[in-house]
Amino acid sequence: MTSVPVVELRVWGVDRIGPALGRMAFGRRRIGRLPGLRFAKLLGTGSARTFTPRDADLRHWALLTVWEDDAAATAGGYTSAIGDWMSASTEELRVRMRPLRSRGRWAGVDPFGSYPEAQWDGQVAAITRARLRPTRAMSFWRAVPPVVSELSGAAGLQVAFGIGEAPIGLQGTFSLWESADRLTEFAYRSPAHVAAVRRTDSARWYAEELFARLAVTDVTGRYLGRTP
């Protein structure tokens, strides 16, 4: 039986953009060799208001990792591959999670796996990621503002921001919620979001997409000066 992996999202705030760009360019191979690591992506972040380059936040960078277990995740945090980011940051948010439900692919693989969804009463996180079809991008961008407006005012939302491997075309979101019920309420009862989901197949926005819901087991540190 395959064990349920441990997922971590680390977000670092930095003062110096140049060195951060260098770590983004050359750090993937170092991180990819860490013991017990199943999946990793160094990511840019942004406001997720429009999913265009003007959303980009060059002072916050993220690392999403999927580990075999808690021991591997903890040990990874003490390596220089991750420690170099930590030592250069002005703030760090670390969210540790376990997958509850996942569908779709990220760069051709399923990073989280499929497991019977257990009852979870604590905080939950949602991760979305999509590879846009270039010919459908304008249609997608026009659909974004109403959804973002609903998300920003959603009950139970604790933090939300954009994540992506590139400013255009490879984009996603991370959001943290006080409970699964609050996330479900937004996903299935917010009119603009429901309408956008229903349009996904007919609009053919995505060449690849992923949605994951995760149980949040620990939150430490700060993002934009506060702990969610």
Report the β-strand fraction as a percent range: 35-45%
CATH architecture level-2 label = 2-Layer Sandwich
Structural class label:
alpha+beta
Number of strands: 8
- Let me know the largest β-sheet: 8 strands, antiparallel, barrel
Number of helices: 7
Q: How far apart lie the N and C ends?
A: 34 Å
H-E string: EHHEEHHEEHEEHHE
Organism: Gordonia sesuvii
InterPro entries: CrtA-like
GO molecular function, one term: monooxygenase activity
Keywords: Monooxygenase, Oxidoreductase
Summarize the structure.
It comes from Gordonia sesuvii. This protein has 228 residues and is of the alpha+beta class.
Describe the protein.
The chain is an alpha+beta fold and 228 residues long. The mean pLDDT is 89. It is built from seven helices and eight strands, in the order E-H-H-E-E-H-H-E-E-H-E-E-H-H-E. It has an eight-stranded antiparallel β-barrel with strand order 1-3-2-6-7-5-8-4, surrounded by four helices. InterPro entries: CrtA-like. Keywords: Monooxygenase, Oxidoreductase. It comes from Gordonia sesuvii. This is Monooxygenase.
